[in-house]
Each structure stands twice: as C-alpha cells, then as structure tokens.
Design goal:
single chain; 231 residues; mainly beta; 14-stranded antiparallel beta sheet; 14 strands; 5% helix; 62% strand; elongated
Length: 231
Amino acid sequence: NNTFIDLQANELKTTVADIATIIPSLKTITQPNFARLGNINYKGNFTGFINDFVAFGTINTNLGTVTGDINMKLPQNKPAIYLGKISTESFRLGEFINTSQLGTIVFNGKLNGIGFKPKEVRANFDGNIRSIEFAGYTYQNITVKGDFGKNLFNGSASVNDPNLLLNDLKGSIDFSGPQPQFNFDADLAKADLRKLKLTLDDFVLNGHFNLNFTGSNIDNFSGSAKIYNAG
C-alpha cells in the first residue's frame, strides 16, 4: 500500500480476478459486473499507489474498448472516487451494468463520481454519446450533461438522430423499476415513431412535450404525455 509505481506498459495482460488479489475492495463490487470484462489488455501509463493512482491509456476487454485519463481512489471500506475523461468504442454497457434495455455505447466525455454500487453511486458526466442501443433502436448523436445517482439521471440533453431531433430536453429518467420512468420537458423537432420502434404504424411527431410516464414502448406505456403546438 505504500509502494509508489510509475509504469509505462506497451502490452499488459491481466484479468479482474488477478487485479482483485492486489486490490481486494474490487471483490465487493457486484454492480457494475467487472467479471464480464474477462481478459484485459492495457496499453498506457500508471502512476501512483495501488489505492490512489492516475491511469492514462487504452483497455481492451471482452465487452469492448475503453480509453481514459482517470484519477482513481480506492479508500479502505469506502466507495471508490473517480475523476477524468473517458471514451468507449462499441462497449457493451448493458451487460456491464446488468440492464437488458441497454446495448452498446460509443461515448466521449468527462466523468466525476463516487461509488459503483447502485445505492451509493453519485456521478456527474458531460459529454457526447455518438451512439447507444436502447430498447431495440440505436440512437445517434446525443449531447448529455447531468447527474446520476441511485439509478436516477437528472439533467439535460439534445439529440440529433436521423429519426429523432430533440432540443433542450430537461428532466429525469429513473431506472430503478422494471421499466424506465421518464419525467421531462422537451422541444421536439421530429420523431419518427415507427423507425424508432415505438409503434408499428407510420407516425411522425413534432411540438413541445411534457412527459411523465413509465415504459420503453407503446405497449407498456403508463402515464401522461402532454403535447403543445403539435404537428
């Protein structure tokens, strides 16, 4: 614990199980599921102590690739603390956090948070999601800024997807239940609901929306949707 490490790795191969023998606190984390990362290949730098370090490099895993410049603190019997920049390439986020509605994500942005477990996590992120799979559709070009804690996102976003043009979305998304719960206001320039796989019929919407509902598609929708100046 008192050893200072200054390491440059051109090729470092390991697994989460091997890392956990050095950092035992990883064994207590079940969410996200680090074991699903499988074999880990790392290329980059590591500077600091085992429980307080800065890592700059690229990690290739069974779930995809992550590049980061992160300061990580792993205090004894306390939640992890992390701060830095991170980007992903086709990373299977849904498998990593055990959420079936989510698939792969391509993301680039800043992350600042405490904890990994759902009951303790408090994180802020600011970045661009180039693509993310959600409920059977791959959304593109999402700019997002907000806070995430206890499976609740609260913040703002905009979407420039071929089938969804959304400006100035502000509100919250709650992932704690069996279906996500949405509560937000947004200016919608275009939404092709059939191509978004929300309906089976051709249906295109625009207008100002005030939404408070639970569900991921039209079949399990429950709540209210108010639309102003709809077209």
